[in-house]
Amino acid sequence: MAKKDYYEVLSIERNASQEEMKKAYKRLAFQFHPDRNPGDSKAESKFKEINEAYQILSNPNKRAQYDSFGHMSSEGLFTESDFGVNFSDIFGNIFEEVFSTGRRSRAERGRDLKYDLEVSFEEAAFGVEREITIPKRIICEKCEGRGAAPGGETTCTTCGGRGSIKYSEGFLAISRTCSSCRGTGRRITKNCPSCKGDGLITFDQTLRVKVPAGIDEGARLRMRGEGEHGSYGGPSGDLYIEIHVKQHPFFTREGRDILCDVPISFVQAILGDEIEVPTLEGKTKIKIPSGTQSGQTLRLKEKGVPSLNGRGKGDLFIKVQVEVPMRLNSKQRELLEEFAKVSEADSSSRVGRFFDKLQEFFGQ
Q: Which residues of 25-48 are buried (b: 16+ CB within 10 A; e: fewer)?
């Protein structure tokens, strides 16, 4: 494929000055640099083309040869080694090598912290405010986070306090972070005795946490800026509080609804009754209809858990478990046997209908 005209690549006239060419190159290189266009192969190809054009036209001798002969083969005049620069180095970080100047900060964001908070079933339902104590690293007051004892730091002799070292490569002013001071421009000669040069110390901090009503097991609360302090002036991390709900002796939870198993006697199931059942607000009475079956569910509206957004509440479902006595005294047995005799002719019962079908199936 034929290469484009280098002047067209840089969008300049053939009689453009070196200063005009340099401005055009910087503008285009910034626009198409791979760091600004991640994953864009077209932008990367354009960036390489821009660099190739500039490396030729910025050199008076190569520009004269190009104006006379145009493009030559890879075995001829213009190769990467002829340019006197490694393109891969340029591609690495144009912002550092072309535009970066001045001191860099060692500031780092503080670590995020996690705290496991256990609450009761009722506290999760209605919300609660708790006081917690967490160990975390905070800025050392003795050195104000600098890590040095009083008078224990000097200007970095490698970079002269600038935090970076500049190199010249053609017109490029390449600026790299000073490896001696890691960009701070200073060297610690004596560590702070309190933080041992770290800039942070461990401290137990007490916080008040508001647990919202309706929260559930495994939910996480985020407290911004309550994690560890950042080093060298960096921002603090966040604190994540993971909620664990204790088991309840009566209730289990499904979303906003509450389930509760309530045992009743078979006499209560047959005749019906009014019984007390637990709710989150205390005890309340419900009616057990006569003929209630084991496993039947009764619903108490809006006796469940409030919604996290404050809109409405769930329901409480009472699941009735009919208890059959394991032992009978002679009087109880006599009465039940009598009941059984008078019930044999009742073909309307589920038991009666079942045995009628059974006899029909076996032809008896």
A: beebbeebbbeeeeeeeebbebbe
Nearest alpha carbon to residue 105 among 165, 187, 190, 177: 177
Under 8 Å CB-to-CB from 17, ≥6 apart: which residues?
A: none
Other Cβ atoms less than 10 A from the Cβ of 286: the count is: 17
Digitized pLDDT (tens) for each residue of the chain, 364 residues in all: 557 788 888 999 888 888 888 888 888 887 887 767 777 888 888 888 888 888 889 888 888 888 776 665 433 444 443 444 444 444 444 444 344 444 445 567 889 999 999 999 999 999 999 999 999 888 888 888 888 998 888 998 888 888 888 766 555 556 777 877 877 788 888 999 999 888 888 989 999 999 999 999 999 999 999 998 887 667 889 999 999 999 999 999 999 999 999 999 989 999 999 999 999 999 999 999 999 999 999 999 999 999 988 788 999 999 999 998 888 899 988 888 888 787 765 555 666 666 666 666 666 5
Structure tokens at 61: 């001798």
Asked if 91 contacts 34 with a C-beta cutoff of 8 angstroms, the reply is: yes
Instruction: Give the integer Cα–Cα distance in Å for 164 and 245.
Output: 53
